[in-house]
Amino acid sequence: MQNEILDLVKESILALNQFRDESDQLIFSQDLVLFGQGSKIDSLDLVSVITEIEENLSDNFELDISLTDDRALSRVPSP
Predict the structure, then answer these.
(1) How far apart (Å, rounded) are the C-alpha atoms in residues 68 and 75?
(2) Distance CA 50, CA 33 (A)
(3) Which of 15, 39, 46, 70 is most exposed, with the fewest beta carbons within 10 Å of its own?
(4) Alpha-carbon distance 13 to 40, whole Å?
(5) Residue 61 near residue 48 (C-beta atoms within 8 A)
(6) pLDDT at 76
């Protein structure tokens, strides 16, 4: 199942790339930083990726989960 989830994350990154300049495309790898120091995306892009992953998990695995919670959103810095 880990490979399937990684594929969903990759699909979400590819979906985000459709709205980014060609020179600003993200290259998916397990080392890609999505949050915090070294991240190449802003908070709006992060929300888009998280939402896309949640929707794909629901559609493909019937898993209704939230990848964010009140504790995560109250952190400084928050996603």
Answers:
(1) 11
(2) 13
(3) 70
(4) 12
(5) no
(6) 64
Per-residue pLDDT of the chain (79 residues; tens, 9 = 90+): 889 989 999 999 999 999 999 999 999 998 999 988 999 999 899 999 999 999 999 999 898 888 877 665 566 665 5
The answer to whether 25 and 16 are in contact (CB under 8 A) is no
pLDDT at 68: 79
User: Is 22 buried (19+), middle (13-18) or exposed (0-12) by CB count in 10 A?
Assistant: exposed
Instruction: Assess contact for 64 and 58: CB atoms under 8 A.
Output: yes
CA distance 26 to 5: 18
Q: How far is CA 53 from the centre of its chain?
A: 6
Distance (Å, whole) CA 61 – CA 70: 24
End-to-end Cα separation, the chain, in angstroms = 26
